[in-house]
Amino acid sequence: MKNIINKIFLFFLLFVPITLGAVYLHVSLLAIFFLATLAIIPLAKYIGEATEELAVYTGPALGGLLNATFGNATELLIGVFALRAGLVEVVKASITGSIIGNLLLVGGMAMLAGGFKHKKQLFNKTGALAASSTLLLAVIALVMPAIFLQTAPSIGNQVIEELSIFVSVFMLIVYAASLFFILHTHKHLYTEEVGKYEPKWSKTKSMLILFFATLLVAWMSEILVGSIEPLVASFGWTELFIGVIFIAIIGNAAEHSSAIVTALKNRMDLALQISIGSATQIAMFVAPCLVLISLLFKTHMSLVFNTFELIAIILSILIANLIVEDGESNWFEGLQLLMAYAIMAVAFFLHP
Question: By C-alpha distance, which of 324, 303, 285 is closest to 104?
Fold first, then answer.
């Protein structure tokens, strides 16, 4: 079964040169959007596989961090190109979608797949809750600018931008502190027995695949963003739905495959580090970075999200916190997370 999946992903790699050829031949932007989407999926998979291999050498803490970082490289790059194109709402929607997607879709699929193979899976709840509490801090950081605007509607955009910049800097400080917590002062919370997991690739091969796959993802992301507007016009999809569901699922492809594979191997500490850690990194690193990067472009991005997006983020974090607080997971909890994601996906699709 695994060999068949690998062959399918190898086949999908053909869409990388096909996409480049379509761009060169000036094929319709609508076709280019879907070709670029198919090209990103296998690249994201190899990013995830390379970081999983590196995790055997580095341990789950640094391995999960590497997976979250390079897995989120897709979202960060798509966000930068979208900001350059002035698609600020798409960027905010993709941030929302990445947070709820990592917590509910990636986490849910990992728990469901692992739970079918293992009746009960254990993980270090202190480490998981530390990441979850950081996400609650992210909620405060994202909610305050929106509440500020609601309670002081006469305030100009300049003040909102200044508030977003200050909040972004504070979020980056907390994110840096969380790395120090995970990798130095409390790294014992994120250790597991890795001797029985034999790596398939050498460290050098893993790093080379990681490097070149990330470069190609950056290239495909730029092409993808350039073809979003024709998609809106042709299908009538809103920028909110495209960002929250479509782009977020594409960007999270690395986390999907990695979290499921590690959960099947009963490595739930690493699976949760990928899922919750990736959501934390989106909220505490990618979002504030994009706010600061937007200052280089004509259209600036603030941290003011709409009410619908904020409620989706808050509810996702709350249910994820409730599920990890006992230090164990099963397939039913995974199903609950997936159903929560399905409800939100339908709501975002129908939202005007």
Answer: 324
List CB contacts of 322: < 8 A, sequence separation 6 or more.
none
Assigned token pair, 116: 């079918």
> What distance in Å separates the CA atoms of residue 281 and residue 139, rounded to the nearest whole number?
13
Phi, psi (deg, nearest 5) at residue 304: -85, 105
Give the total residue count for the chain: 352
- Helix (H, G, I), strand (E, B), or coil: what is residue 265? coil
DSSP letter string, 297-321:
SSS---S---HHHHHHHHHHHHHHH
Spatial distance between the Cα atoms of 33 and 224, rounded to a whole number of angstroms:
5
Dihedral through CA 305, CA 220, CA 21, CA 8, nearest 10? -110
Regions of the chain with pLDDT less than 70 = 1-6, 59-65, 67-69, 71, 186-198, 253-255
Cβ(109)–Cβ(261) below 8 Å = no
Range list of H helices, 236-330? 239-241, 248-251, 253-264, 268-281, 287-293, 307-324
Q: How far apart are CA 74 and CA 70, in angstroms?
A: 8
* Beta-bridge partners for 243: none
For 2-350, give the CATH class: mainly alpha
What pTM, to 2 d.p., does this model score? Answer: 0.82
Between 253-264 and 268-281, two packed helices, what is the crossing angle to 10 degrees? 160
Single-letter residue type at 230: P
d(CA 54, CA 264): 18
Please report the pLDDT score of residue 178 as a whole number: 79
CA distances for 292 relative to 88, 93, 184, 266, angstroms: 13, 17, 28, 39
Round the CA-based radius of gyration of the chain to a whole number and report it: 19
